[in-house]
Design goal:
The protein is mainly alpha-helical. The protein has four helices and no strands. The longest helix is centred in the middle third of the chain and has 21 residues.
Amino acid sequence: FRSVAAFLGGRISFPGIADVVEETLNRVPVRQPGTIEGMMEIDRESRGTAEEIVANGTATTKSIRACVRAN
């Protein structure tokens, strides 16, 4: 969702959506939540990581750096 909002806000290009999602999945550890609260924590962490990637252009993939637009 954060990557789509960034696209709609003109912060990244359309291909940048997939790059942000990919990099978020690479950075957030895989774990099995045992509760709804655990699931919500993983969601919060993932959204925060995606926002950081968009804000800083810190993805490890080359294409995200090309897609992030200067503010």
